[in-house]
Design brief:
The chain has about 180 residues and is mostly helical. It has a domain at about 60-160. The chain has seven helices and six strands, in the order H-H-H-H-E-E-E-E-H-E-E-H-H. The chain has helices at about 1-10, 25-30, 35-55, 60, 115-120, 145-150, 155-180; strands at about 65-70, 95, 100, 105, 130, 135. A hairpin with a 4-residue loop joins strand 2 and strand 3 (about 100).
C-alpha cells in the first residue's frame, strides 16, 4: 500500500501557469481596435437599440391617467372637460384628503345639463352608486390601454395582469431565446 502512494507522489500533475491564459498575449495577437472590431461592436449593440424602446414603451401605453365617473345626463360621452364646475354636486369627495372618489357618484338622475349646472339641491352623501363608465383626463396622455379598454375602478386589476404577463414574457423570451441563439 505504501508503494502505491509513493508511485502517485512521483507522477507530475500538470498545473496551469500564468502563461496559459495571458490577456496581453491575446490582445497582442488580435491587435488594436480597428474597423473590424468597431463594426462588430456596432452590430452587437444593434439589438439593444430595438429592444430598449419595446421595454420602455409600456411606461407610456400602460399609464393610468386621472379618471372620474361619467355623469349621465350632465355630459356627453365625448366630453373633453375633466373637471367641470358642476362636478361637486355629482361626485362625492373624501373630505379629509379633498380627493374625489373616482369610482362613485351620487345616485341622482339628471335629465338635462341645465339641472347639473343650476341645481340648488344638496345631494345625499350616503346615497352613492358605482360608475358605469369613466371619463379620463387627456391632458397628459391622449390614449393608453387603460382608456382604450376601460381598465379603471373594478377593472383596474386587469392592467396589473397585463404588465405582469408582459414582464413574464420578457423573462421567458430572454431565457429561451438566449439559449437558442447560443446553439
Amino acid at each position: 500500500m505504501n508503494n502505491s502512494l509513493e508511485e502517485k507522489k512521483d507522477v507530475e500533475v500538470p498545473c496551469q501557469t500564468e502563461d496559459a491564459f495571458n490577456y496581453d498575449e491575446i490582445l497582442g495577437y488580435l491587435g488594436q481596435m480597428g474597423k473590424f472590431q468597431f463594426r462588430s461592436f456596432l452590430l452587437l449593440c444593434l439589438p439593444a437599440v430595438f429592444f430598449g424602446p419595446v421595454i420602455m414603451i409600456y411606461v407610456f401605453i400602460g399609464a393610468i391617467p386621472r379618471y372620474r365617473c361619467y355623469v349621465e345626463g350632465c355630459e356627453n360621452i365625448t366630453t373633453t372637460d375633466f373637471e367641470p364646475w358642476w362636478l361637486n354636486r355629482t361626485i362625492p369627495w373624501d373630505l379629509p384628503d379633498q380627493f374625489m372618489r373616482q369610482c362613485r357618484r351620487y345616485d341622482i338622475s339628471w335629465d338635462s345639463v341645465d339641472q347639473c349646472h343650476f341645481a340648488d339641491t344638496t345631494p345625499d352623501v350616503s346615497n352613492v352608486t358605482k360608475c358605469l363608465h369613466s371619463v379620463y383626463d387627456t391632458s397628459q396622455f391622449h390614449s393608453t390601454i387603460v382608456t382604450e379598454f376601460q381598465l379603471s375602478c373594478e377593472n383596474e386589476w386587469k392592467q396589473t395582469i397585463v404588465s405582469t404577463v408582459f414582464m413574464a414574457g420578457m423573462l421567458i423570451g430572454a431565457v429561451t431565446l438566449g439559449n437558442v441563439s447560443d446553439m
